[in-house]
Design brief:
By secondary structure, the chain is α/β, with parallel strands linked by helices. The protein has one domain (about 1-220): Trna Endonuclease, Chain: A, domain 1 (3-Layer(aba) Sandwich), CATH 3.40.1350.120. Helix content is about 45%, strand content about 15%. The chain is built from eleven helices and six strands. It has helices at about 1-5, 10-15, 20-25, 30, 35-45, 55-70, 75-85, 90-110, 150-165, 165-170, 185-195; strands spanning about 115-120, 125-130, 135-140, 175-180, 200-205, 215-220. A hairpin with a 5-residue loop joins strand 5 and strand 6 (about 215-220). The N and C termini lie far apart (about 55 Å).
Length: about 230
């Protein structure tokens, strides 16, 4: 039974993926892996790739359009494998992983060339390098899933955790906070107040499944962004 199942094509086991050929191809190694096959398929099928209050179709179309551009083709193994490294289903971890895909879109949409997963002599791996600038990504969990109970507090807490670790060893790196997991009302509060996190340069943004993005920055960002 197990051998027969692994031999069946992905589109036969999960025909809903057939409409998203770039997602299916890019994540094929984890969709078919022993540890990640169930968790990764569940994530895209039942959780819209990490978008809150979005249909599966809208979430998958967003990532299918991103992957269709080819900007991550050279880094397929590195990026895809991050999503499927655990047999158990961990929604927060998977959303955090897709935050790196969201930042890749943010950078690409503004015309930046970038390199993901940069190994440094400090022993840290930084999420991106844009020319000579390092970029570290964090994606806060929605306020309802953590001890802090507002989006503003979640942004600050998430940023604080990064500044005490990777960014302490690499001052000058840009911290990017992906608030895509936030519902509309929490994001409106964040965008209205534009909270700092005690570290600059800082970028905070949120994508919607239709590809629209809003955000703000503090400090000098040495590369363009797709919003003012």
């Amino acid at each position: 039974m197990g051998r027969a199942r692994t031999a069946r094509p992905l589109e036969v086991e999960d025909p809903w993926l057939a409409d998203y050929e770039h997602v299916a191809q890019f994540f094929l190694p984890v969709f078919l892996s022993k540890d990640g096959r169930e968790s990764t398929r569940t994530f895209f099928r039942d959780h819209a790739g990490g978008f809150p209050d979005a249909s599966r179709e809208a979430g998958l179309r967003f990532y299918d359009d991103l992957l269709a551009t080819g900007v991550l083709d050279d880094y397929r193994y590195t990026m895809a494998s991050k999503l499927g490294t655990s047999q158990g289903f961990d929604l927060s971890r998977m959303q955090a992983t897709m935050g790196e895909f969201n930042v890749a879109k943010l950078l690409a949409d503004a015309g930046n060339d970038f390199e993901p997963e940069v190994e440094l002599g400090s022993g840290h791996a930084i999420d991106f390098r844009v020319e000579d600038t390092l970029v570290e990504v964090t994606r806060p969990r929605p306020p309802s899933r953590r001890q802090v109970n507002t989006g503003i507090a979640a942004v600050k807490a998430s940023g604080d955790a990064k500044t005490r670790d990777q960014l302490a060893a690499h001052p000058g790196a840009v911290l990017v906070v992906d608030a895509t997991s936030f519902a509309d009302d929490e994001w409106r509060r964040v965008l209205g107040e534009r909270p700092d996190v005690g570290y600059q340069p800082l970028v905070v943004f949120r994508y919607r499944p239709d590809g629209s993005v809003e955000g703000y920055s503090h400090g000098s960002i040495p590369f363009p962004l797709p919003f003012s």
